[in-house]
Amino acid sequence: MQIGSRVVESSCRHIVGLRLKRPGSRWTLKGANAVPAIEFALANIRRAGFMDWKVGMSQAA
Predict the structure, then answer these.
(1) How many contiguous H segments (helices) and E segments (strands) does the chain have?
(2) Which end of the chain is more exposed for a tag (fewer CB within 10 A), N or C?
């Protein structure tokens, strides 16, 4: 049985690598660390919005 964390970890590393290794890109360490932090923050905001909507829908029913 395969554990999902390896698949997720590999996907994250691949996506971040694609973002940082674009042709002509130059990154400082601070800038490179900011990219995933911003993406994770946006994902959390979207998830929070979805959960608020889901709770509202269940209370309306």
Answers:
(1) 2, 0
(2) N
